[in-house]
Amino acid sequence: MYSSVLITGGAGFIGSNLANFWKMEFPESQVSVLDNLKRRGSELNLSRLRDAGIEYIHGDIRNPEDLELGQSFDLLIECSAEPSVLAGYGQSPAYLINTNLMGTVNCLEFARKQEADLIFLSTSRVYPIKSINQLHYQEDPNRFVLAENPDVPGVSSFGFSEAFPLNGSRSLYGATKLASELIMTEYIEMYDLRGIINRCGILTGPWQMGKVDQGVIVLWMAQHLFEGALSYIGFGGLGKQVRDILHVSDLYELLKLQLKNLDQHNGKIYNVGGGLDHSLSLKELSEFCESITGKHISIESVPETRDADIPYYVSDCRKVQQATGWKPRHTLQSTLEEISAWIEQHSSLLKPILMGEKN
Q: pTM (2 decimals)?
């Protein structure tokens, strides 16, 4: 496949899992990860990476000199990011912009100089907030349901496709990712760079250090296991917001298919997620967690909706499925059971991080 792979953000949840999956399947490949270890819990992945024979490089994509590695790579998987959609609200956006935009430019320059292929993990949050919130929804007992919106392109019973209009505000997080997509498109055209943009929905699985603003699936399970506190925030405080989720190993299987036929997918943008069959509301997530853990916790209701919140997002993945034949293999039940088992197995290590305890 590739003889040398660099994964930026490689000590994080997505990057470390992709690195381990790759090295396990292609042991002859040189796999290296670069990470600044800013996110708490990412340091726990270093021993996993080392044991798998993966090289860890301490570096920050904001600094171009950190990418002067003195070795060649033929594939770059760009996973590094400030991942919170709430980043920048009520505070300086400097770290967000420098990481998610300027950092991406530095990675593109690295790929250009190395003549390396590039996978860029973008986000579903490139789609404008107001446009999503102004759609018509039905309210069922446990979830919001997307109603018919015949006059809006890119909206169907399957969810949101790549044709959904991009005009409007999407948060600075979403804006930095969309700007990165545009610049990458120019690099592909101008420098004959080969690359793919995947707009990912909610990714989850073991070794995700879940927080309220990113990693909500793991956070929800951890709070049930450790009998902590949770809140349904916004949209009446009923927990009816809906998202689709994708196990990180299913993402890995897709990347392999894309890279196997990269010329076919070069320059393409794909929505990547679990789709309607792998969607659930917060209320339904609570029911899953209670059933799996056998524990019931009280969940506070906070009716007020926060900035950047949306009531519904499900990835319409038909474009990427038709192009590759890919479909997620993990069910909601199996994904959540795996997360629960992982937390229980490493509870003493994970509890301080997942419960937000201070060092």
A: 0.97
